[in-house]
């Protein structure tokens, strides 16, 4: 059974009719045709004709199908324009009670005439509701063009369960241009496969409720029908009404759900592509958006400007799901594979052996592809330059050892290096590539070597200074 929920999508209310939430009321319905002398006339042209009716005010009781006691009887007539199969059914999401359905021909309006077809319960999808399994009714019969058929629907046993008396009646004549538009609300969205490839659906939209609303990409969008799919793969989905079966100007919108926190993923009014024009008015819509595996997506298709052009409302939709649209969609971040997109599927080949790949930061390894999709790091040969290229008295250029290690090649500790000009320091390598200048030991000769009565040879003080060692003032000379 359909349960209506008032919910916001962006800044729009899904159905815009929260007043219907009150008990014993029906969505999008017309008053009950409860007078047998004034039945509701259903068009006789080929297609699906849907009547949504609130039958609470219908008070007639009596028998249908000869032996089924019913209440809340409502009356319809249809005169088909063509000869062929006709289906009359109450198997619709809006039917919320146990129905009995009778079709007859001949006789006065309020007379039974000849019963052509009759049904109480039908075991098919959409024929169950809150009042019971298979509680709705369906008949199929061969109808003659120009003959008037009387349709009567009543509540089984006068609705003892007190169910809501909302009725959805479907009369299908000949070969309609698509499925019955049961998907006129989000909660009854038609499910499409979410597998890789292309999937199509056809809907006869003519008798959907108008209910125009403003969408983000177009205003006054009416006659919405809904579709849903759960993607089986991660990739991209394209939903399009650019189809030979589409005969009116459409708008397409993609949402993440029906109620609660809902995001709009895409919205398109016109697609400027030759395949997106139709024979009546305007253009069709097409949207492409990324999808994730296991996530459900909702798609609404509406009529631009509420089909003010008066076009026939046949709809063909195509859902295409692919892994990729171009090679960049297939990037696996592996420099050793060749990423391509072919026919919507990612394909991966291997780069040739020796192709450069991700640097491991070691200057003594070569970063190359192995030809099988892997990035390898073999060691460079011994003597390959690496690290510090400096060539001084205390260090030679660094080289690889052939096993993946960079060697420093520094001169040993104590090797002579550049003189700092201080006679009281030693100029030696530190063994780590640096030139150092430690102080000479105390007494080391330096400076003036003269040795007279007034001066002795100069010597270092052990702290890097050269001392003159002169005789004191007044010494004999």
How would you explain this protein's 3D organization?
Strands 4, 6, 7, 9, 10 and 12 form a six-stranded mixed beta sheet that branches. This protein has a five-stranded mixed beta sheet with strand order 3-5-13-8-11, with no helix packed on it. It has a five-stranded mixed beta sheet with strand order 14-16-21-18-19, with no helix packed on it. The chain is built from no helices and 32 strands. The chain is 0% helix and 33% strand. Residues 1-24 have low confidence and may be disordered. The termini are far apart. The chain is rod-shaped, with a radius of gyration of 45 Å. It is mostly beta strands and 477 residues long.
Task: Describe the structure concisely.
By secondary structure, the protein is an all-beta fold.
Q: What secondary-structure arrangement, pairings included, does this model have?
A:
Layout: E1 8-9, E2 12-13, E3 30-31, E4 40-42, E5 47-54, E6 62-64, E7 68-78, E8 84-89, E9 99-105, E10 114-119, E11 138-143, E12 149-156, E13 166-173, E14 190-191, E15 197-204, E16 222-230, E17 235-240, E18 250-255, E19 264-268, E20 286-291, E21 296-303, E22 314-322, E23 337-342, E24 345-350, E25 368-369, E26 375-376, E27 399-400, E28 406-407, E29 428-429, E30 435-436, E31 459-460, E32 466-467
Parallel strand pairs: 3-5, 4-7, 14-16
Antiparallel strand pairs: 1-2, 5-13, 6-7, 7-12, 8-11, 8-13, 9-10, 9-12, 15-22, 16-21, 17-20, 17-22, 18-19, 18-21, 23-24, 25-26, 27-28, 29-30, 31-32
Major beta sheet summary: 6 strands, mixed
Q: Please count the beta strands (DSSP E, at least 2 residues each).
A: 32
Uncertain parts: 1-24
| Assembly form of the protein | single chain
- How far the N terminus sits from the C terminus, by CA atoms, comes to 132 Å
Number of helices, where a helix is a run of at least 4 consecutive DSSP H or I residues: 0
**Shape by Cα distribution:** rod-shaped
Whole-angstrom Rg: 45 Å
Strand content: 25-35%
| Range of helix content | under 10%
* Overall mean pLDDT: 91
Q: What structural class should be given to the helix and strand makeup?
A: mainly beta
